[in-house]
Design a protein that fits this description.
heterodimer; A: alpha+beta; Ubiquitin-like (UB roll); Alpha-Beta Plaits; 3 domains; 3-stranded antiparallel β-sheet; 18% strand; elongated; B: alpha/beta; Arc Repressor Mutant, subunit A; Rossmann fold; 4-stranded mixed β-sheet; 24 helices; 13 strands; 43% helix
Chain lengths: 359, 554
Amino acid sequence: MSDTTGRTIFLDGEEVPFERDETIFQVAERHRKEIPTLCYDDRLDAFGGCRLCVVELEGARNPVASCTTKAEPGMRVTTKSGSLEMHRRVLLEMVVSENREVDVDELSGYASQELKTLVDRYDARTGRFSGKTSGTSRPDDPNPFILRDYENCISCYRCVRVCAEQEGDYAITVMNRGFDTQITTEFGGLLKDSSCTFCGQCVQTCPTGALGDLKALRFAEVEKEVEKTRSICPYCGVGCAVDIMTKGDQVVGIQPAMDGPANEGALCVKGQFAFDFVHHPDRLKTPFVRDDHGQLVPATWDEALDKAAAGLLEAVNEHGRHSLYAVASGRAPNEAGYTLQKLVRAGLGTSYIDNCSRA
Amino acid sequence: MSPSNDELIAQAKNEEAPLLPLLHRLHERDGYLSDEALRAVSKGLRIPIADLFGTITFYHHFARDLGGFEAPRVCTGPICCLKGAHDLVESLEGATGMPCSGRCDEPIPVIRGRQTLVGTSANELAVRETPMPPAKQGDHEECVFAHIRDPDRKTLDGYRRTGGYEALQKAVTSMTPDALITMVDESELAGRGGAGFPTGRKWRAVAEADGGPKTVVCNADEGEPGCFKDRALMDHDPHAVLEGMALACYATGAPRAFLYLRYEYPETEHILAGAIAEAEAAGILGDDVFGTGTEIRIHLRRGAGAYICGEETSLLNSLEGGHPFPRNRPPYPVTHGYEDTPTAVNNVETLASVPPIVANGAAWYRGLGLGDHAGTKVISLSGDIARPGNYEVPIGLPLTTLIEEWAGGVPNGRAVQAVTMAGLSGGFLAGEDLAVTLDEPSIRSRNSFLGAGGIMVFDDTRDMVEISHMAMEFFAEESCGKCFPCRIGTHRLTERLAGTAGPDDLEAWLDEVNDLNKTLKETSACGLGQAAPLITESLLRYFPDAVQTHVAGD
């Protein structure tokens, strides 16, 4: 490839172009180098903690972290070598040695299999570097959403960083230092007493399942494959893309779609955890209308719409067109909102239309 | 009546780098940092409470229980352990250990509140002034110690009597910043905190960097075990350090400077605060330096107990009130330092070397070293040595000359078994490698480095595996927890040196330790993790028999 922009590096001997401000890791990702990492989440500022992504850079004394090193013209980078693979395996063996277990259920969270996948790829389940394990789990936290199993924490701080950088909640932090580091809330308390909004972003970025989706994990014992179906969150008009996880006919959990155009992996507490209505016995499955005694009884859509239309017309006839007032749901998208105001303005002849976000 | 939270917070809001001074005021007012006080700080300085909580737990010395501020902290650094520090912890009520607190040339130090006492047993603890560097040895000329023993040197009058502040006056009235930088450059002065980066080059990079205001930081977070040179300089010659800082400010165009002092030097804080006030009152520092209109303000900031804050980017994060993890580099502090402004971070000794260089010329300083080496280095010598203390040596002096001739050799008729280099960070030198000269090329050729110049001497009765264990335990305790190899690796090496975990089989043990050494050294994010394995590497190199006995028994 010819060097027209003056911005190329040599990646494992091949001259490749890079864009301004790109890191070596990002360039290598585009070229499918599959550099391992545990502390990296492309939505977050690169951290440089796990050191698995180290690459050899000609002229540098030691390997450099590719996630924090910007590409510069003429760099000669080696992403894979005997020495690098040795370091990566040793680092993974170290990580395995500090955790209670590596195998966690895939229902734990979106990224929960990252450690296990790398450990298997590097055949690092060797029992080397035995010693004290790190992290103190919080089974005393009674919240129904987020498992806090820090005995499986590897201190990559993705949870702390996503909470601060993506959510702006600053609910969690890291306390102490070195081997005693511990993810915690202010003063070591419960999540409900912190500024946590239970959005679950920490759960979804955790690469070890130390933070887990408690609602999904209720179905861990069901012996069926997890199927994922792409959909849109039904709650508000933002339109966050989600993957609905099912086992058979049972919805077992929700994961944010990292490639969702509106949310890029983000969700709020409702979209993330509030899906129990789907299988709830009280869920409405047909329209209801009131009978002559004022009791709600099941009806067909035609019956229900006829009844509603009749009621609206009656009100207009008796009290005039301005006796009506419509409130569009905040959960409705723009198109539905537009249709409603059209109905109200053109159909019913009043300008009394509002949205529940304001009304 | 002691000031309220609101009053202290209002005061802090008018200060540069307000978090640490505010926390210290609350810590001392209440005797600990209460939840209530921290919530007030969080609100007042707009720092998320979780972040603030995480950050204060990072530091060793912030107490979270009532009365914790006054509870005795006993130095359990390597040299103090040899003197019985653990017994002293046991015998003092409520006492806890603290990492090396920089008094290795004295009996064991104990910090109580704002006071340091020294002694080897509970009933003989007493306040003692910082030892003066021993009388000059040999016929080599000194630089930073040349006048330190002069009477009243620590007062402004005493300092000026032998030419103090004349270098600053000369610079601001008759030299351009560029000429000053060129002079420092030509002197070949290099960083004396351990990294050895050429000072003139650093200053030029800051002077030429875009953005501002420029900032100078004096790194006085002397946390390396076995290093106590900066304390001697600051306690006995505080104005020399301030003058060096002011010269750095003038050279780089910085109107402000911070002196970041380690927590364990409370008396030094008092001395420096007094010296800054004296110099400001005399128009030497402040907004009109020597009547030239130049503004140079020096702010004194005190750490709270964290070795990693001696690493310059951790220090900057600490100063800014953030979590003191090291930053990823590049960008370097010379372009993105304190609050992302171009910043020159220099060690105390480096800065104190500048006034004599300006007074006597670059060629004079270069000529102080032996052979091709430029300048001098203060060595903090401690351990099994007749006369421990700070010695300013010409760079290139043979190590044995320092130990045997200058410092009186090993006492009790014993011989040197090993010495540490760079405090602990350079690992051990022993055997034939003791024939090094005190300069980086010589020491680096033995897989070690001179660093900040701490040398601990161990005689032939000492258990080198146990000393290695103490050293590695220090690194494990001080590891910040940001990068995996250091956080886990220093802990695993400590366990293996203690014998509490790891294989019983020598070959398997060596296999693990060698892999840990290599991965720590080559993949750790900062100097702590990269240097820690020099301890185990040099132990294996010089004392393989002791290791075999430790792992597999006799």
